[in-house]
């Protein structure tokens, strides 16, 4: 890594992006747009997706071997589904420079940290866990965009072994993409995102799956409109990625699911009783909280 660029942002001469999808591709585009990198090498399983990445100028070169891609890199981003991390970490460690920074974009942290510790051993200080809070229901290099992280939050979950300069450099990379960085521990991260991210995805998938399996599914989907579309938008997200997230964070996710079921049971009582006043109270309080959130009144 070279000396920090203007505004405290680091410049990286060779960046390896393993997983050039929405997140990895957008990270690459954002670094390029802000002049915060030199060469970007991409790694991916799908030749068609990698061809799109080259055609769009997201990456400058393509490698099929993650080890070859990270050789000589000063920054490596792993942006694949989290279940792939253990094997990927094992493959890249032999080729990873002792001065390189390794980070991820996974939506879970405790499992990722455990995988990094197992693969890197005494070198685990080179790994700075990260999670960009940005995304969309579309995936792949075709969905990547340079402004995806503009104004968005990125959570860093630094390890005790991380030198402060390494954490600052990783923060600088995300800030160069227009993001705001925050820090929290891995366990706290997984508990928070089980509630605000993983549970909503599980609910959206479940509702669509329930209706799709009914004999009158054609009628149900035929009459579904804006409300159903808004509630289930994220059910169009990448199934493999969300399979891995849900299984990796299953303990915290089941706890949040149980609390949500309890809330539904509580609402069932006034609904059955025709208690409109009780339902309206809940609806008003929920609307107020959501409007305050949309107005930016809540900060971490």
Describe it:
With 300 residues, this protein is an alpha/beta fold. The two termini are 30 Å apart. The chain has two domains: 6-184, 3-Layer(aba) Sandwich (Rossmann fold), CATH 3.40.50.720; 188-294, 6-phosphogluconate dehydrogenase C-terminal fold (Orthogonal Bundle). The strands form two sheets. The chain has a six-stranded parallel β-sheet with strand order 3-2-1-4-5-6, sandwiched between helices. Strands 7-8-9 form a three-stranded mixed β-sheet, covered by helices on one side. It has twelve helices and nine strands. The protein has helices at residues 22-33, 47-55, 66-70, 85-92, 110-120, 164-176, 186-212, 217-223, 226-232, 239-248, 250-273, 276-294; strands spanning 12-18, 37-43, 61-63, 75-78, 101-104, 127-128, 130-133, 153-156, 180-183. Residues 1-8 have low confidence and may be disordered.
What's the quick description here?
The N terminus is likely disordered. The radius of gyration is 21 Å and the shape is globular. The protein is built from twelve helices and nine strands.
Structural class by SSE content? alpha/beta
CATH class of the largest domain equals: Alpha Beta
Q: Strand-and-helix sequence, N→C? A: EHEHEHEHEHEEEHEHHHHHH
Which percent band covers the strand fraction?
5-15%
CATH architecture of the largest domain: 3-Layer(aba) Sandwich
Radius of gyration: 21 Å
Ends distance: 30 Å
Mean pLDDT: 93
Q: Tell me the strand order in the biggest sheet.
A: 3-2-1-4-5-6
| Low-pLDDT ranges | 1-8
Largest sheet entry: 6 strands, parallel
Q: Could you say what the CATH topology of the largest domain is called?
A: Rossmann fold
- Spatial shape: globular
Total of domains: 2
Number of H/I helices: 12
Helix content: 40-55%
Can you identify the CATH superfamily of the largest domain?
Answer: NAD(P)-binding Rossmann-like Domain
| Number of β-strand runs | 9
